[in-house]
Amino acid sequence: MTLYASDIERNDCSGDQSREMLQLRYFRAARNYVLIALAVAVFGAVYEHFSFGVYSYYMIYAFAVPLVCGALPALLLPFCKRVPAINEFAGKLWRDGIAVWTVGSLFTGVVQIYGTDSVWSKAYAIAGLALYAASAIAALLRRFS
Length: 145
What we know:
Blueprint: H1 5-9, H2 15-49, H3 57-60, H4 64-76, H5 88-114, H6 120-144
C-alpha cells in the first residue's frame, strides 16, 4: 500500500498508523536508493577497470547522487518531529531529478574517459536542477493550497 499526503488529508489513515506507514515508505525508498547507488558504483568500477587506466571523477562519484539526494533525505525525514508527507507529483519530479543527475554523471564520465567533451553534460546538469526546482515548487504549492 502506498501512502500519499492526500490520504492523510482525507483522514483515510489514523494518526500513529499513518506515521508508521510514512516511515516505512521512506525506509523502503532509502533501501532502493542504496541499491541503486551500489549498482551505479559497480557499473563505474567495471567500466573504469576496462578503460586502460583512464578515469573520471564523474564516473567514480556517480553513486553519490542517489545516496545524497535520495537515501539520505529518506533516512532523515522519518526522524523529524512531524513526518512530512510529500505529494506524489513532487516526489516523482525529485526522483526524476536524481535519475537525470545520475545518468548525466555517468554520461560525462564516459565522455571524459573517451577523451572528448560534450554539450550534453551541461544539459543534464541543467535539466536535473530544473526538476529539483519544479519538485520544490510543487511541494510548496501543495502545502499552501
